[in-house]
Design a protein that fits this description.
Helix content is about 35%, strand content about 15%. The protein has helices at about 45-50, 65-75, 95-100, 125-130, 155-175, 185-195, 195-205, 240-250, 265-270, 270-280, 285-295, 305-310, 315, 360-365, 370-380, and strands spanning about 10-15, 30, 40-45, 55, 80, 105-110, 180-185, 220-225, 230-235, 300, 320-325, 330-335. InterPro entries: CoA-transferase_III_domain, CoA-Trfase_fam_III, CoA-Trfase_III_dom3_sf, CoA-Trfase_III_dom_1_sf.
Length: about 375
């Protein structure tokens, strides 16, 4: 996100294996014959989150590597690390050491459980935090087991919070001329993301109401219904919208039925009403129902697979799928940034880098190192 907004981002990777996500495949974007590279290619997972970055392949287990990072830290606005608390101290890359080198630096630590607290020593992964911090308990069908979200949503929300905190710290630094340390964790981000469900538990003092599938615990009808060939989400979120739904399915009398006339009564008679609706929706295809409700002002949506979603006319019209020229894989398709401005621009300027693609460039242009110095580091195995 920071890269999309125009920041120069230097990604520091292990000089041999690189970022772990480089191996998280298939699928891979295959190398072109002209690239001269061997192997399966660049993983789709890695490609999804690494555009607008320069790859510096460097080992900081060697003092020479630490020295390079110290020099980069002196010149940088922001440093982001995601190691267990205390892990970087032995390398001299901890906050206290770096702050002495550059008091204006914004030092961002992203961890599973934060820098403090009884669980701060634990390694954190999205699926574990989803489980431990309530999300799995409220995700899944009403009578089914808990399930994880289809993407690593806790990782993503944590990244969003981290980005917001960085931007906030930059604004604050402009006023105070002081850097900062940012402590952002998956556990905190997931707790905050429970939003109204957490608030309900805190106010009532009771357990949450469990899993609701596509339904809503306090709004009826507001869920997916089976059609002849798939599923459609219908949102009768208030009495007016329920009236539109009732007319659409051919039962306008439901609007005045004492069992359904208000949302509270519809919630009380949820099973009966939803069974009636689904009995009708099964009689037509999803496209037929979309045509019925088009332009009526009631929320509705088909449940699409991801490939379909990526090729929707609206997705393409909003420029959310783009093509980029990768140096070793040729033309690749990527999801674009959702950030849009009127008077400025966020965009994908450069494709995700190959491992160590910019090592020489960064050392030469950012630190002023000579070709001989760079080659000596490469022969020593400090860089790639």
């Amino acid at each position: 996100m920071l890269g999309d907004l125009g920041a120069e981002v230097i990604k520091v990777e292990h000089p041999v294996r690189g970022d772990d996500t480089r191996a998280w495949g298939p699928p891979f974007a295959k190398y072109t014959p002209e690239s001269g590279l061997e192997g399966p290619g660049e993983s789709a997972y890695y490609l999804s989150v690494n555009r607008n970055k320069k790859s510096l392949a460097l080992s900081f287990q060697d003092p020479a590597g630490v020295e390079i990072l110290h020099k980069l830290a002196k010149e940088s606005d922001v440093l982001v690390e995601n190691y267990l608390p205390g892990s970087l101290k032995k390398y001299g890359l901890d906050y206290d050491t770096i702050r002495e080198l550059n008091p204006n630096l914004i030092y961002v630590s992203i961890t599973g459980y934060g820098q403090t607290g009884p669980d701060s020593h634990r390694a954190g992964y999205d699926v574990m935090v989803e489980a431990e911090y309530g999300l799995m308990h409220i995700t899944g069908s009403r009578v089914g087991p808990p399930v994880k979200v289809g993407v690593a949503i806790t990782d993503l929300t944590t990244g969003l919070y981290a980005c917001n905190q960085v931007l906030g710290a930059i604004i604050r630094r402009g006023k105070t001329l002081k850097g900062d340390r940012i402590d952002v964790s998956l556990s905190d981000a997931q707790t905050a993301s429970l939003s109204n469900i957490a608030s309900s538990c805190l106010i009532s003092g009771e357990r949450d109401s469990g899993r609701w599938g596509t339904a809503h615990p306090s709004i009826v009808p507001y869920r997916a219904f089976k059609t002849k060939d798939g599923d459609i989400l219908l949102g009768g979120g208030n009495d007016r919208l329920f009236g539109i739904l009732s007319e659409g399915v051919g039962h306008p009398e439901w609007k005045v039925d004492p069992k359904f006339v208000t949302n509270a009564q519809r919630v009380a008679n949820r099973e009966e009403l939803e069974e009636r609706i689904e009995k009708i929706t099964r009689q037509k295809t999803t496209d037929e129902w979309l045509a019925v409700f088009a332009g009526k002002g009631m929320p509705y949506a088909p449940i699409n697979d991801v490939q379909t979603a990526l090729n929707l006319p609206h997705t393409l019209a909003r420029n959310m799928v783009i093509e980029m020229e990768h140096p070793a894989c040729g033309t690749i398709k990527m999801v674009n940034t959702p950030m849009k401005f009127t008077n400025s621009k966020a965009d994908a300027r450069t494709p995700p880098p190959l491992l160590g693609q910019h090592t020489d460039e960064v050392l030469r242009e950012e630190l002023g190192m000579t070709a001989e110095e760079i080659q000596a580091l490469r022969e020593k195995g400090v860089i790639r």
